[in-house]
Specification:
The radius of gyration is 25 Å and the shape is globular. Helix 5 packs across helix 6 and helix 7 packs antiparallel against helix 8. It contains eleven helices and 37 strands. By secondary structure, the chain is of the alpha+beta class. One of its GO terms (molecular function) is serine-type endopeptidase activity.
């Protein structure tokens, strides 16, 4: 595919370099609706039939409570995820929103609010310029709350009485994420934080006169503060150690003391994990509520009556739910929950129940409700698994493999979840796919994956899902091990995983594939660049192919956030690093078969990142499958698109990894 003449100078220079490479391969192009595919064969009907049930699994994630005790859930019955209401255990799901685009960012109004409803966000074609809308549960009317322009808005938050709504938006200059406060009754909206950078609102004080806010720099660096909404004065809190990560921040019932999550030093001692803390500035009382849990606190929520607090810890990728009484901080006994990963969670308006989203490797997301007094867990949604026998789904095991460097004189180990097909005949070696998460400040957890289940049960393929260095969930030091000039150390962790695979008697080291999206897509390309002799094929979804062109072309509101992680492309030092590590600059080293998939409207990793790596590899005489959706962004949200991509991916593995 020819590069557009409007591409930046760095990308054009790259295309000139590739002009001296081998003759490019021929391209078979097909356009169907919003789908553009190149060199992708027709999908066999037999494969589509096998995939059909796996592609018709669905989940239902908790999104909020209504004042009468119903729950709002996000689920998909047609093309995209929409808001539904459920009013009793395993009750009917009443669909409330009906849009061709998925809705998200759902925030229900508090029980004391004059109007009852919820706020939701919606963009166009995956461009992520989300606008906020109000859905009125009484009238069923929908109204636009934000400017409706090329701005990004989200993080809606109500005051306890429902009179005010705070949110973050880029409407002022398209780059900085400011904080706005809206009078719910009149619609009058004013900016309250315009300091520059990426800000978010955390909590209103009980009287609605102050707002806790935070400026996000990176996964390891945030700066909290409070805004007086009458005067507009912003007061930043001191950060112990000068730099730290912060999670949630919320006022206690007295409107003075706060609960928050942070990895600030304690008594001058550095902390690896983010813990839940309590601080009363008036009495100087300070308490670390999770000091005995050597893992991160992923999030917390307070009941509307401020009598209870629930929080979730992330313990080696598994979620653990905790509830404490306030202000005593005494633990509340809970019923046993299924082992898995917890998504959204919140107390009912009366504080007597707690709704949670639960997901496991063998069960998609569903909403459960805990009766706290009775210690009773009830399932409120039962999502479909395409009519498949869920008892045959494969649960992964957690393995750790040694990598190239050491910690305290011993080899560092990398955690990975290992999906192994059941009932493998003795002596058969399994092809294996390495699935690498995005972020890079992300973490793979053992959640339900119809892809992993199809590979295991239908194609006999094992899957390994590593959390290479730079992943969250394993401490501050681990998170920083791939920053800036250390970027390729995480690629070496994939090399170490290839070594581990070669030592496993049931795995076929000659049939290894790599798969990943976003930053994981970069990891796919980088792995092929370094280990094409050991990796047969790779699938890159919305991946970075050149850090300089990526940072130049990503949307302006994201650029400084990404520079904090990857490095600044404007400095000579990082220009040298990026020239060395960017796969598009070394496409001649990619000998494995490659499939690249992209959304045309992606604001994070522009589609030009996909097109330049496709052209570069083809110019070296290698065939590349390329898939572009004109109505998608950073990933594929519409079911028909996701289904086609999934089917094409399975065909790619069949032809280029599994073999006969």
């Amino acid at each position: 595919m020819a590069l557009r003449s409007t591409l930046p100078a760095a990308l054009l220079a790259l295309s000139c370099l590739q002009a001296f490479a081998a003759e490019p391969t021929s391209v078979k192009r097909e356009e169907v609706g919003n789908r553009v595919s190149e060199n992708i064969p027709a999908i066999p009907g037999e494969l589509l039939d096998k995939l059909n049930r796996y592609q018709n699994t669905r989940g239902a994630g908790f999104a909020g409570w209504t004042r009468e005790g119903c729950v709002l859930v996000s689920t998909r019955f047609a093309e995209t995820a929409q808001v539904h209401r459920v009013c009793q255990p395993l009750g009917m799901r009443e669909q409330l929103t009906f849009y061709p685009e998925p809705v998200g960012g759902i925030a229900a109004s508090p029980s004391k609010a004059q109007a009852e409803g919820f706020v939701f966000g919606k963009d166009k074609g995956g461009d992520e310029f989300s606008q906020l809308y109000w859905f009125d549960l009484r009238t069923r009317g929908v109204s636009l709350l934000t400017d409706g322009k090329r701005s990004q808005n989200g993080g809606a938050l109500f005051s306890p009485d429902g009179k005010w709504m705070a949110y973050a938006g880029t409407g002022r200059n398209g780059t900085d994420r400011d904080i706005y406060v809206r009078n719910v009754a009149t619609g009058d909206t004013k900016p309250v934080v315009t300091e520059g950078g990426s800000w978010g609102a955390s909590d209103f004080s009980p009287d609605g006169k102050r707002l806790l806010v935070s400026r996000y720099v990176s996964a390891a660096e945030s700066y909290p503060g409070v805004v007086d909404l009458d005067s507009g004065k912003l007061e930043m809190f001191p950060v112990d150690g000068g730099k730290a990560a912060f999670g949630g921040f919320a006022f206690a019932a007295d409107g003075r003391s706060v609960y928050f999550v942070s990895d600030e030093p304690i008594d001058g001692k550095p902390q690896e994990f983010q813990t839940l803390r309590f601080h009363d500035p008036a009495t100087k009382k300070f308490e670390v509520l999770t000091a005995n849990i050597p893992w991160d606190v992923d999030g917390f929520t307070l009941s509307e009556d401020d009598k209870r607090l629930a929080y979730v810890t992330n313990e080696d990728g598994i979620s653990k739910l905790h509830v404490i009484e306030l202000p005593s901080h005494k633990a509340v006994a809970l019923p046993e929950l299924p082992i898995g990963v917890i998504g959204g969670f919140d107390f009912s308006p009366d504080g007597k129940r707690l709704a949670v989203t639960l997901n496991s490797a063998t069960s998609p997301s569903d909403t459960y409700v805990i009766d706290l007094a009775a210690r009773k867990l009830e399932r409120w949604t039962r999502s479909e698994v395409g009519g498949l026998d869920a008892s045959k789904f494969v649960a992964p095991t957690l393995v750790r493999y040694e990598t190239f460097d050491q910690v305290d004189g011993k080899p560092r180990t990398i955690p990975a979840f290992y999906y192994r097909p059941a009932n493998v005949p003795k002596g058969r070696k399994l092809p294996v796919i390495i699935n690498i998460h995005g972020g890079p400040e992300g973490q793979s957890q053992p959640t339900f994956s119809p892809t992993a289940q199809f590979l295991a049960n239908e194609l006999g393929v094992a899957m390994l899902v590593p959390n290479v260095r730079g992943s969250t969930g394993y401490g501050k030091t681990y998170l920083s091990l791939d920053n800036a000039g250390k970027r390729e150390d995480s690629v070496k962790d994939i090399g170490a995983l290839l070594d581990w695979i070669a030592k496993q008697p049931e795995l076929d080291a000659s049939r290894v594939g790599v798969y990943g999206g976003s930053y994981g897509g970069y990891m796919v390309l980088a792995s092929l660049m370094h280990y094409s002799d050991r990796i047969r094929a790779g699938v890159d979804i919305v991946g970075i192919s050149d850090f300089t062109t990526f940072l130049t072309n990503t949307e302006s509101y994201r650029r400084d956030l990404r520079r904090a992680e990857y490095g600044d492309e404007r400095t000579p030092e990082m220009q040298e690093v990026f020239a060395r590590i960017s796969p598009a600059r070394h496409s001649d080293r990619i000998a494995s078969r490659l499939f690249v998939a992209q959304g045309k409207n992606d604001p994070r990793v522009p589609y030009t990142e996909a097109e330049q790596i496709v052209k570069a590899v083809r110019n070296n005489g290698k065939e590349v499958w390329y898939l572009l959706f004109n109505d998608e962004g950073h990933g594929f949200q519409k079911k028909a698109n996701a289904d086609y991509f999934g089917a094409a991916t399975m065909l790619f593995w069949q032809q280029n990894l599994i073999g006969e």
